[in-house]
Amino acid sequence: MGIYKAEAIVLRSRVYGEADRILSLFTKEWGKISAIAKGVRKPTSRLRGAVQLFSHTHLVLYTGKNLDTVTQGEADEDFGFLQDDLDRLATASYCAELVERLTLENQPIPKLFQLLLAALRTLKWGEPVLVARVFEMQLLAILGYRPRLDDCVVCGRKRRVLWPDNQETGAAWFSIEKGGVICPDCVPETHGARTVSPAALGAMAYFLRTPLDRAVRVKLARGCSVEIASLLRSFLAYHSEVKPRTWEFFEDLNNITI
Ligand SMILES: [Zn+2]
After folding, report:
1. Mean pLDDT, range 67-89, rounded to an integer
2. Do β-strands 68-77 and 180-182 pair in parallel, antiparallel, or remain unpaired?
3. pTM
4. Distance CA 203, CA 5 (A)
5. How far is the CA of 27 from the centre of ligand 1 (A)?
6. How far apart are the CA of 157 and the centre of ligand 1, in A?
7. How far apart are CA 209 and CA 203, in angstroms?
8. Which residue of 47, 167, 208, 217 has the fewest C-beta atoms within 10 A of its own C-beta?
9. Could you read off the pLDDT of 161-206 as tens digits, one per residue?
10. What is the pLDDT of residue 207?
11. 125 CA distance to ligand 1 centroid (A)?
């Protein structure tokens, strides 16, 4: 490809050699790529500001045999405010890690690029826990794992119309394995069905259909937030076979944050 341009978000940055960094970039045009920024740790480097962690940046790169090289760059947004707040920084790391681990190199997913950008921008003012939940839901939908919330994932019958939620508890059934809600008739033959509250299902549906920066304004009861976090964690682990490193970090930080 020779020289090419990319609009990128820096997902990960690690020290390499004396003064270089190896970057994992999520680009709008080419999806995830790895690139080296040479000499960027020298105080005089002109690239320094353009490739900070989480920066939204415009880069010029040169194709290499193993790694591409960043030759020029200019950051549009550096999200420096993330460094001042551990919760916001941890949430940004978590979103970036999900993107890094759930996408393939050179597979552009412009909607996911926009979603990550929206999450980083919203972290300036939004509740980090809610940013993480809405991000997870929308990421699942973009990557083709959209949880089915309105009809039975086994037989297809419409929830609420053809089968009511459990009369006693108000809860509905959900199967992580099948990827959505299940009706009472299909529960006996579904392995590992668990209950989920209508409030959690309602919030999840709202997160799927509402732009992230609006969805995070919702007021969510703590119990409901914890319920959704637990459900989505199982869902992500099962369907993506990924257990993000940042989960353990969140647990250390605050065991009910996520
Ligand atoms: Zn069914």
Report:
1. 95
2. unpaired
3. 0.91
4. 39
5. 41
6. 6
7. 10
8. 167
9. 555 555 566 678 999 999 999 988 899 998 889 999 989 999 999 9
10. 97
11. 41
What's the gap in Å between 205 CA and the centre of ligand 1? 19
Rounded Cα distance, 154 and 208, in Å: 21
Name the residue type at position 58: H
- Tell the residue number behind the tokens 């509740």, with chain if given: 127
Rounded to the nearest whole angstrom, what is the distance from the C-alpha of residue 152 to the centroid of ligand 1?
5
Complete edge-to-edge strand list for the sheet that includes strand 172-175? 180-182, 172-175, 194-196
| Domains defined for the chain, CATH in brackets | 3-78 (2.40.50.140), 81-258 (1.20.1440.120)
What distance in angstroms lies between residue 151's CA and the mean position of ligand 1's atoms? 8
Q: Where are the alpha helices (DSSP H) in 105-244?
A: 110-122, 128-142, 198-209, 212-215, 222-240
Name the amino acid, one letter, at 63.
T
Q: Where are the alpha helices (DSSP H) in 7-103?
A: 86-102
Instruction: Identify the CA nearest to 99 among candidates 88, 85, 89, 109.
Output: 109
Q: Where is 245: in which H helix or E strand?
A: helix 245-253
Residue 173 alpha carbon to ligand 1 centre in Å: 10
Exposed / middle / buried, residue 140 (Cβ in 10 Å: 0-12, 13-18, 19+): buried
Cα 96 to ligand 1 centre (Å): 36
The model's pLDDT over 46-56, given as tens digits with 9 standing for 90+, comes to 998 999 999 99
Point out which residues pair with 10 in neighbouring strands. Answer: 25
Q: Which two tokens stand for residue 23?
A: 């970057």
How far does residue 197's CA lie from ligand 1's centre (Å)?
18
Tell me the per-residue pLDDT of 14-47, one tens digit each, with 9 for 90 and over: 999 999 999 999 999 999 999 999 999 999 999 9
